[in-house]
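Table 4 source record.
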Amino acid sequence: MRVEHSVWFALSMARQSARLRLVRLPPAEKNGDSLRLASPNRDGVSAIQRHHRQRVRLRGVPRVAALIVAGVLGYLPPATGATDTLTIGITQFPSTFHPAINLMAAKQYILAMTLRPVTDYGHDWQLRCFLCTELPTIENGLAKPTELADGGTGVAVTYRLHPDATWGDGTPVTSADVAFTWETALREGTGFAAREEYARILKIDVIDAKTFTLHVDRLTYTYNAFGGAILPAHLEAAQAVEPAEYRNRTLYDTRPTEPGLWYGPYRISEVVSGSHVVLEPNPTWYGQEPAFGRIVVRVIENTAALRANLLSGAIDYVSGQVGFNTDEALGFERDDGGTFNVSFVPSLVYEHVDFNLDSVYFRDRRVRQALMYAIDREALVDALFGGKQQVAHSLMHPLAPGFDPDVQTYAYDAGRAAQLLDEAGWRPGPDGTRVNAEGDRLSFPLMTTAGSRVRELVQQVLQAQFRDVGVEALIRNQPARVFFGETVSHRTNPGLNMYAFLSTPEGVPVEMLRSDRIPSEDNGFSGQNFPGYRSDRMDELLDTLELELDPGRREAMWSELQRMYAEDLPAMPLYFRVEPYVVPVWLKGIRPTGHQVPATMWIEEWRAVE
């Protein structure tokens, strides 16, 4: 059986007008094979779900259809001794569960329940300790500037791990684990996405089992931030003997239910690839006891099906970070009668489209600029999101420190787009699609994660507006685990990739923009400069920016970085997402951050309240 639905969307098709007009789109099909239907089984429904089903009012979903959708993914029996199960819906399945390989929002959302960084940013956008006991600063003496052999200035930062932090198998989390992780990250081919964070560490002094000092090769304004993963040396050392094989042998993927991989409030107890992940309380957790005896994270890539599952009670809650899009949350806000609390949180989630700068289509900057002029982002945001999203003119959010309001913008101008394409040597061909002197057609794939209704609608807008200026974009979507795990990270798409980056407040985009962060076979496909952007000046600016301790001087550097980004266009800025939270009224304790740290980092605070 195939699930079909019709979609109405305001779509611009007229060159002479920047206004969008209403067009009926053909039925959108559920990604993948047809759905297997299963009868709902009361024995597989948690107490929370039964309570929720009694209270929820199914709006816009026929009762019979809702019952069918509730059983689409089958049921998961509650764990023995569990007090209650919380079932969370997300739209993507992680391509790996290794905390340092292939950084991905869906993975981070799940792993935040199982691990804790040494430091990271809190709800107030300020750096704080999670695994450490006291944030090191120069003022408290735990961080000390040091003179390097080359005359530069480094820093020695001392961290003390929580005395009770223990892996799920009872082995203490120690300084030796930190040292092992650092050594593994430095080995060529292990595939660490943020390898640079570890590469800057010159050495680690293990003072005792819970205390260590990092000797870092530069004094940056984020000198005391250490958010990198920590791996269990007693389990992963054997897997890391052959660096080139590590990403295929790591227990995080071959045996993710091993208790000793996790030291957070929960540990992973079951993984069914592409379907769901089950988490159970970690008995060695040192913090506040979590309220739920079991958490099930179900992956439903189609957001319409995700909504139906929430309304039917098959899931209790949908992730605010990897769940509903803004338009779907607006529907809840409009139609709900007190069953959900709906909020929209401004965030540093940057939705954009990567150019492949090594592709014949996009080597000329004029082509990239033309495509920016060809799209009407203001009308798109108004039509899709009720104006709640912020149009992006660069990679920095207007709320972020260092934002430059005078950065170059690209207002919708199809005439200017056509002129730039002509200048770049792409002339209209017999069928209207532009060709160059070598006979190449300006036709390329436009890819994103399959099943995201809003992204698919955005794709159709881009496709139509590109067509208006003689550019053919071919929509080719993939499941998130394939799109991020292979296509994006290996840079195999010669066309455009649409996705989002999450960042920390005033985080320097070294991984996104520095020339030596371009993933390749030679570096084990580490780094996140997926467009392949190369600029000596940008490299110099990135290096200088993070070494500048004076906020006023950094502001000028941030302005130059944004000007370069807007002019060179390694990517096409679309908008900054608001995080839509549709929370059932009985679920308390969820506190959004608006940055890359997910709300699940405080999962132990979540409670079901009558």
